[in-house]
Design a protein that fits this description.
The protein is globular and about 60 Å long. Helix content is 32%, strand content 15%. It is built from 12 helices and 12 strands. Helix 2 runs parallel beside helix 3 and helix 3 runs parallel beside helix 5. A 12-stranded mixed β-sheet has the order 7-8-9-6-5-4-3-2-1-10-11-12. With 347 residues, it is of the alpha/beta class. S-adenosylmethionine (SAM) binds next to strand 3, strand 5 and helix 12.
């Protein structure tokens, strides 16, 4: 059975359930991280094509009727979409949503944490790659480090628990801060997860030389902390979790060197209603068209169900098998189809 017991689990060709949906509420972002948005200019989704909150909630309801129980709001930067708490309220009212989470860069979190909590958001994950303001400026090309730290504190004050911190590790940029990040998280009851630098679209300057692998991270951390023990758990979560000798837990998302495709139960809805079943997929399904043409919930559910049953994607695994690995998509292609961008389809 699925997230709610009345619905049989919908499975793809590899037996993976449709369980988790990432909803990108905007393709706009207020940072320009080197590994995600390294260019000066971008092609944005036309505003009239963005789904309203009502339309987003309607589509999410179709997914939850099909068994999705975890919904994560992302972007772009989700907090740049005005009145996001209104959407949160609408999704929190959907009884099938067991876990309603938000991934944010934290820049606008101090202003919004309280309202989001009141609206019914369950959890927050903040992306933060460094504790040093000058590095933050170099990696994001914006001067907002203090605002992110204030956002993390505000989330705590607003009553959020189980907050996570996601850190993309790049060789020569922040790979000497792994222990500092863990200490920062430990002091605040926040679990830190290190993400291997991925060659997803948007990462047009990716090179394997800048990837710090999970093994290398573990080696570095065990030099500092001593023995590190893997946490044994049966989970579809992307992060493998580890235990330090003092009981502190941290995670590593090794999408580049040890992809978790075989357990991947997530798909992505863009702000303009394209649905992707893999972060690396070049083809998606347009749900805005039928929705705006008046398709019923049952018709949309049939379309989604058929596509999920046919799903055989394992993008990260196929990328790993490439002999000469370089950036996945070229700049010209990204300009022709911005849906290929990580900031459009939601990380
Ligand atoms: N703006 C929000 C944020 O910063 O969390 C949500 C969108 S962002 C695309 C989601 C996550 O994707 C962030 O944690 C970001 O660090 C991660 N990300 C983006 N590009 C990446 C890459 N090339 N490799 C690994 N992680 C990446």
């Amino acid at each position: 059975m699925s997230a709610h017991d009345s619905v049989p689990v919908l499975r793809d060709t590899l037996g993976r359930p449709l369980a988790s949906l990432r909803v990108s509420v905007t393709d706009r972002c207020n940072l320009r991280c080197l590994y995600c948005m390294p260019e000066e200019e971008y092609v944005w989704l036309p505003r009239e094509e963005l789904l309203s909150f009502e339309e987003l909630a309607q589509l999410v309801a179709v997914f939850t009727e099909l068994g999705v129980g975890e919904v994560r709001l992302t972007g772009g930067e989700p907090l740049v979409r005005h009145n996001l708490d209104r959407l949160v309220g609408m999704l929190a009212a959907n009884a099938h949503v067991r876990d309603l989470a938000l991934t944010t860069n934290g820049v606008l979190l101090a202003e919004q944490a309280e309202g989001l909590r009141q609206a019914g958001l369950h959890r927050v994950t903040v992306s933060l790659d460094t504790l040093r303001p000058e590095r933050f400026q170099a990696m994001t090309r914006r001067d907002d480090h203090a605002r992110v730290l204030a956002g993390i504190d505000a989330a705590h004050r607003a009553g959020f628990t189980k907050t996570k911190l996601d850190t993309v590790v790049m060789r020569g940029r922040n790979d000497d801060e792994l222990a500092d990040m863990i200490e920062f998280g430990r002091g605040r009851g926040i679990e830190v997860r290190f993400i291997e630098y991925m060659d997803v679209a948007g990462a047009t300057r990716w090179s394997s030389a800048e990837v710090v692998s999970r093994d290398q991270m573990l080696e570095q951390l065990s030099r500092r902390y001593g023995q590190i023990t893997p946490v044994v758990e049966d989970s579809s979560a992307p992060a493998a979790r580890f235990l330090l000798p003092d009981g502190t837990v941290f995670g590593i998302i090794a999408s580049t060197t040890a992809p978790f495709c075989r357990r991947c139960d997530r798909s992505r809805l863009t702000a303009d209603g394209m649905w992707y079943r893999c972060l690396y997929a070049t083809q998606g399904t347009d749900l805005r068209g039928p929705l705006r043409a008046g398709a019923s919930g049952a018709a949309l559910a049939a379309q989604i169900g058929d596509a999920w049953r046919a799903r055989d994607d394992r993008g990260a695994e196929l990328r790993k098998a490439e002999r000469f690995r370089r950036a996945f998509v070229g700049l010209e292609e990204l300009r022709r189809d911005p849906h290929l961008e990580m900031h459009t389809r939601g990380g």
